[in-house]
Write a structure and sequence with these properties.
single chain; alpha/beta; 12 strands; globular
């Protein structure tokens, strides 16, 4: 099983730790692509025009510190990715308080999509950075399009013969789209908030529930091999799940919640 997560814009900045070493990250086939994006981002942020760099990155005037942070990425302290990424999904997942068996499963079953690194594993040591998936970098160009040309071999290697549980947001799903021949073992999850008979997608419910789902699945330890098996696992863990039809993109599972 491979559980594919989106990153978070918010990150915790390590205050101590070794500097970034791309050679130590998982999915070593991405090393050259990572180096290219890293060099482009650092170069952009080391210019004499931080306001222009901020505009390219979609940052406001009050976020100049993020430009400076990017400029220093090559020597910045690093920490485990599961401690660097923050936000609603990661807070709900709460890697740090998983039991030891669940942590081991997370190391082999969870990957986080990254605009800077392509894919990272929870234990990969990375610095805090700011780079959204919709940015156009000088050199590599549109980040999403860049990773679309590089990510497939690493993603397929990480997936192996197991089930892909794709929890990425729309922006990061564009980095790699599984081929139709994988559809029978691709499950996507949509979280719907039901209130007074009406269902709708609400960002906070969506992120928090996905975090709780990952936590529960890692703790449970089961590794279903089909979307239907994954739906049954979630039902056994207490969620209300509705299965959509199988398509060339996989099977969408709707998880219905009425409270966070």
């Amino acid at each position: 099983m491979l559980i594919l997560l989106p990153p978070s814009e918010g990150k915790s900045s390590p205050t101590r730790g070794k500097p970034l070493d791309l050679a130590t990250l998982g999915s070593p086939s991405l090393a050259e692509a990572r180096a290219e994006v890293l060099a482009a981002l650092v170069g952009l942020c080391r210019t004499d025009e931080p306001a222009a760099a901020a505009a390219t990155l979609g940052l406001g005037p009050s976020q100049a510190d993020l430009v400076a942070r990017n400029a220093a990425l090559a020597t910045a302290p690093t920490a485990r990715a599961d401690r660097v990424y923050t936000g609603v999904l990661f807070d709900a997942l709460d890697f740090a308080t998983l039991d030891s068996a669940a942590k081991r499963r997370a190391g082999s079953r969870v990957a986080i999509t990254s605009s800077l690194f392509g894919l990272v594993r929870p234990g990969d040591r990375i610095p805090a950075y700011r780079l959204s998936g919709d940015v156009v970098l000088p050199g590599p160009g549109p980040v999403a399009a860049f990773w679309r040309t590089h990510l497939a071999p690493a993603a397929l290697e990480a997936l192996g013969s197991g089930l892909l549980v794709d929890l990425r947001s729309t922006m990061y799903a564009a980095f790699w789209r599984p081929e139709p021949e994988l559809a029978s073992r691709v499950a996507t999850v949509r979280v719907l908030h039901e209130h007074n008979g009406t269902r709708k997608v609400v960002s906070h419910f969506n992120k928090a529930t996905k975090g709780r789902i990952v936590r529960a699945v890692l703790t449970d330890g089961g590794a279903p091999r089909t979307p239907a098996g994954f739906a049954d696992q979630l039902r056994d863990l207490g969620w209300k799940v509705e299965e959509g039809p199988s398509t060339r993109k996989g099977t969408q599972l709707d998880v219905i919640v009425d409270e966070v």
